[in-house]
Specification:
heterodimer; A: 403 residues; mainly alpha; MetI-like fold; 2 domains; globular; B: 249 residues; alpha/beta; Rossmann fold; four-stranded antiparallel β-sheet; 9 helices; 39% helix
């Protein structure tokens, strides 16, 4: 504690001038915080969020089918816990491998606090609150088990791990949309956070390979491929997303024969994908340009084919360089999904607009928008944290972490 | 020192190359390298020596003349090029190690992928090679954690791991701090004692004098002089060689 006081003194009150500035800024901050707390605790009426929490989460997804979403959430929690634990059980060989570094303990504490408080604050029924607690417990317990025993698993089982997520994504699609014996839930009934996450994750996953192909096409020696890629990238980057979304709703129906034209939600998801791919291609291209030519020459002179050299030598380095720019792209993609509300889809913002249009909640816009902002901030923060962890893990020069 | 046989490993005849910008880099360069021979190529910068050895494993194309490597004629046939690259190792001025792979993985990548050899067997060989170039204890580090001299020794071990019949060195010590040059040259000198064929572009006079069987001077895209080191440095036949030696000795 004394060290904290010393630090504050040296950082905020080093000179009289510093002290004046610090006190002025602290006063403004305190006033703003007090004003916000007064509003949040006294004036705001959070019923608009409490009553509509299901709507915000999944839109008009049929109640009798919602068990499928709970099952999917449980699977996701289990996979997240397993992945997290396995990563700690297999530290990179030049790192110190602790099973519970300080950041992990902090993350679990935050997770438990959020799981305890949010369902309570939303006024969910005890049964539902219990479900959230159990889901959190599931994640933490599997995290612990995988961290503790993960290193001793048979290699055959470990090789399966990387395909858990793609498989889970397909399983999730079936659970959400139906099929394979499950009743169909039309995309028009998906909404809220579910639709936002679905559309953005779909676009993020698919724009990556398309973007890489476009970036390679743009650097290709074949003129047709090169000019095609340039034309595509520049056309998409020159048009606002909203016009492309409207265009997608109208044109895709004409372009594709009757039954093949995807439903409106899927049309929007594809437009998002193709839009993001153009921007991603430029990020990947900057990464490719950062890999010295000697890398390709070394790989080729060792006898690797150009495809092997690209896959194993050039792309891993290029994607690592491009990672921060790509994640920035993913974050703006996530936020761009709010445009879906303008073409009449019930994403988070779409749901929010219908809620605010309800006369019962007249004038409660601030509460709704703040909730939306917090939800988006959480998603983007998760993306950012994940990307930084990935960057550290991929950085060959990083020093072992001390915590 | 091993002795070269009479068998021809590399035969380059009248090689001419223009760069896309019109620069005439090679103007009818000729060179014959026999099996087990160590040939050092010297010459002023811009004389085309790097370009010349880079044509031997098709890192550069050429427009006229012919090159035959280990009995395979270099043509634009891609299978030919792959076959030649498997037999010809290359060590670069800038090392060009793969920074995202550990030292061991740098060595094992190509043999496992290209020669389809079992990983465990290649790893064993790789460790032996790292021991031979004096850095066995660095196998699990990443290239960025090593000094320049160590990186270049890894690069040599990486080329050797493919068991090539010919090793090309493109100014292997030019990017190194002076105190690291010796450790790399020592490794190369050890290699020369084996029967591997080496073509070395370098400015290291001592290496050329003591290790090479033959020293070649290139100037303006041509091979000007070819001689045994003793003759080359003390009694060259050409005026151009004398002028070059005056500048570097």
């Amino acid at each position: 504690m004394p060290s904290l006081i010393r630090r504050l003194r040296s950082e905020l009150f080093a000179t009289p001038g510093d002290a004046v500035i610090s006190i002025a800024l602290l006063t403004i901050l305190a006033a703003a915080a007090a004003g916000f707390l007064h509003w949040a605790l006294r004036q705001a009426e959070w019923a608009v969020v409490q009553v509509n929490s299901t709507l915000f989460a999944v839109g008009r997804y049929p109640i009798e089918q919602q068990w499928r979403l709970w099952l999917l959430t449980a699977l996701l929690a289990a996979a997240a816990g397993a992945t997290w634990g396995m990563l700690r059980a297999h530290p990179r060989r030049d790192r110190t491998g602790r099973l519970w570094p300080r950041n992990d303990r902090l993350a679990v504490a935050v997770l438990i606090a959020v799981a305890l408080w949010v369902p309570f604050a939303l006024g969910l029924t005890p049964a539902i609150q219990l479900r959230w607690w159990l889901l959190t417990a599931l994640l933490v317990v599997i995290r612990w088990l995988a961290g503790r025993f993960g290193a001793g698993l048979p290699p055959a089982l470990k090789r399966l791990l990387p395909i858990v997520w793609p498989v889970l994504y397909l399983v999730g699609m079936v659970l959400i949309g139906g099929g394979l014996g499950l009743a169909r839930v039309a995309p028009a009934e998906w909404g809220g956070l579910l639709l936002t996450l679905l559309a953005s994750s779909f676009a993020i996953l698919l724009c990556l390979p398309i973007g890489v192909l476009l970036a390679l096409g743009r650097r290709s020696d074949l003129p047709l491929l090169r000019w095609g890629s340039v034309l595509y990238i520049e056309f998409i980057r020159g048009a606002p997303l909203i016009t492309l979304l409207f265009l997608g709703q109208n044109i895709l129906g004409f372009l594709l024969p009757g039954g093949l034209a995807p439903d409106r939600v899927w049309r929007a998801a594809w437009v998002l994908t193709f839009f993001a791919a153009a921007y991603l291609a430029e990020a990947v291209r900057s990464g490719l340009a950062a890999v010295p030519r000697g890398q390709l020459e070394a790989a080729r002179s060792l006898g690797l084919s150009s495809a092997q050299a690209l896959r194993l030598v050039v792309l891993p380095q290029a994607l690592r360089v491009a990672l921060p720019a790509m994640v920035g792209q993913f974050i703006s993609l996530l936020q761009d999904t709010t445009l879906l509300s303008l073409i009449g889809l019930l994403d988070l913002l779409g749901v929010a607009r219908t809620v605010m249009a309800n006369p019962a909640f007249l004038g409660r816009n601030a509460e709704v928008y703040l909730t939306l902002a917090i939800l988006f901030w959480c998603c983007c923060a998760a993306l950012g944290l994940g990307s930084r962890a990935l960057e550290r893990r991929l950085d060959p020069h990083a020093v072992p972490s001390r915590v | 020192m091993s002795h070269p046989t009479s068998e021809t490993m590399i035969e380059a005849r009248g090689v001419e190359k223009w760069y896309p910008n019109g620069f005439h880099a090679l103007r009818g360069a000729d060179l014959t390298v026999r099996r087990g021979e160590v040939v050092v190529i010297m010459g002023p910068s811009g004389s085309g020596k790097s370009t010349f050895i880079r044509t031997f494993n098709a890192l550069e194309d050429f427009q006229k003349g012919s090159i035959t490597v280990d009995g395979i004629a270099l043509s634009n046939d891609l299978r030919n090029i792959d076959a030649i690259r498997r037999e010809v190792g290359m060590v670069f001025q800038q090392f060009n190690l793969f920074p995202h792979l550990s030292v061991l993985d740098n060595l094992t990548l190509a043999p496992v992928l290209v020669r389809k050899r079992p990983k465990a067997e290649v790893a064993e060989q790789a460790r032996a090679l790292l021991h031979r170039v004096g850095i066995a204890e660095q196998a699990d580090k990443f290239p960025g954690q090593l000094s320049g001299g160590q990186q270049q020794r890894v690069a040599i071990a990486r080329a050797l791991c493919m068991e090539p019949r010919i090793l090309l060195f493109d100014e292997p010590t030019s990017a190194l701090d002076p105190e690291m040059v010796r450790e790399v040259l020592e490794v190369m000198q050890n290699l020369a004692a084996d029967d591997i064929t080496m073509v070395v572009v370098t400015h290291e006079v001592k290496f050329a004098r003591h290790v090479a069987h033959r020293v070649v001077l290139m100037a303006d895209g041509e091979v000007v002089e070819e001689a045994a080191p003793e003759t080359f440095f003390t009694n060259p036949a050409h005026e151009r060689t004398r002028r070059f030696l005056d500048q570097i000795l």
